[in-house]
Input
Amino acid sequence: MSKWSAAKETVAKLSEQAPDHGADVAGMLEALISTTLGALAAEKDEAYVKSFVEYELSSLNVQHIDVQRLT
Output
């Protein structure tokens, strides 16, 4: 299983579990994003995390295939 498949599976499981935790899907995803950004910041420096987030935000409405992101 690729890292992207594992991440998608995690998101799907969290989304399914949202009602069990008194949350909606958006709330669970927000918690995951916040927690993940903190964990990423612990692994990389702040500039890296900021650049990563800016890249992902700029890609939200772009229809393209990023080979690096598929692995």
Observations:
- The chain has a mean pLDDT of 88.
- The helical segments are 3-17, 25-43, 46-58, 67-70.
- The chain has one domain: 3-70.
- Residues 3-70 form one domain.
